[in-house]
Amino acid sequence: MELREVAITTEFIKLEALLKFEGLCGTGGEAKEVIQDGQVKVNGQVCTMRGRKLRSGDEAEMDGVRLKIV
């Protein structure tokens, strides 16, 4: 599994935006579909909320890539 650390300068980043920002999804519509299909985990559990706010220390996982917010 590939681990990427993602530095954010705001209080949080929404899950949908994170997937687009890191290139795991090309568009917001694609991100919405994969999230609602249950293909994304947040902190080890399947998450279907595309607006989920991720803060420093949270992790999202999709397609063998784990994104850690720092």
Topology:
Elements: E1 2-6, E2 13-14, H1 15-21, H2 28-36, E3 41-42, E4 45-46, E5 53-54, E6 59-62, E7 65-69
Parallel strand pairs: 1-7
Antiparallel strand pairs: 2-5, 3-4, 3-6, 6-7
Helix pairs in contact: 1-2
Summarize the structure.
The protein is built from 2 helices and 7 strands, in the order E-E-H-H-E-E-E-E-E. It is of the alpha+beta class.
Notable characteristics:
70 residues; alpha+beta; 7 strands; 23% helix; 31% strand
Overall description:
There is one protein chain. This protein has 70 residues and is an alpha+beta fold. It is built from two helices and seven strands, in the order ββααβββββ. The strands form two sheets. It has a five-stranded mixed β-sheet, with no helix packed on it. Strands 2-5 form a two-stranded antiparallel ribbon. Strand 3 and strand 4 (45-46) form a beta hairpin. It starts with a strand and ends with a strand.
Sheet with the most strands, sense and barrel status: 5 strands, mixed
Number of strands: 7
Low-pLDDT stretches are none
Overall radius of gyration: 11 Å
Fraction of residues in helix: 10-25%
What is the 3D shape? globular
Order of SSEs, N→C? EEHHEEEEE
Question: How widely separated are the two ends?
Answer: 18 Å
Alpha plus pi helix count: 2
Q: How would you state the average pLDDT, rounded? A: 96
Give me the side-by-side strand order of the main sheet. Answer: 1-7-6-3-4
Name the structural class. alpha+beta
Oligomer: single chain
What fraction of the residues are assigned to beta strands by DSSP? 25-35%
